[in-house]
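FAQ: What does the model actually see?

It sees only this:
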Amino acid sequence: MTQTFSSETANAFARVRFIMVRPSHPGNVGAAARAIKTMGFHDLCLVAPRFPDVLDLPEAQSLASGATDVLAAVTIVPTLHEALAPVTMAFALTARARMIGPPPCDIRVAADISCNHLRQSNNKVAIVLGTERSGLTNDDIALCQRICHIPANPDYSSLNVAQALQLAAWELRYALVVAATLPLLPVTDGQAEAGSEPATSGKIQALMTHWEQAMVAVGFLDPEHPKKLMPRMRHLFGRNALSQDEVDMLRGLCTAMIKTARKQ
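And it is asked to produce this:
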């Protein structure tokens, strides 16, 4: 089932902008469009991309795969100033520690700050990412309110820009969904099949009787010396909260075991 957001939550998602500064690889732009759509966002902005027609290039179209609507709606501007014009809180995503600049935080903290900031209906948040080769400049970072890091292997912390954007989008989605008390797992509107309902105690006990008979029939259980086999079997099946279908399946196995043992 497609998760349905309230108008308030949907509005919060609409007020998050992802900004790629001077992207050079069309494939990363397409992958970025797909990344944010999978997390429920739609606002992607490019600052001075290497190729003016980047949105129409085959690699961008191919890697957008299913998110060509987001790709088609991309905003392209010549400067980061213009990209940030409607934004009230911007996070500069970088892998490097900076001696000067805004205060740093990790991406999860940034997501929580963003979630609280978006409670005000006029506020807008941006995640800013730099070029594939060199990241953001100090001048770029100076335009943002916070520096943001993705905790990674300190010996190799450089993420592909589209991958970094995906992680940022996921953290933002998680924070917004939790704040709105929406389900984190897929749900279905359909009713569960009857056989998937938990088996009753009576059915479980009948299974255990049948199971014991089957183990005796195949010679696995010696009724004269049962030791603790059956209590352990009861604990085993009890831990697994069997459904009605599972009990029926195991009863069928017991019947087949007994029939086979009799033939032999």
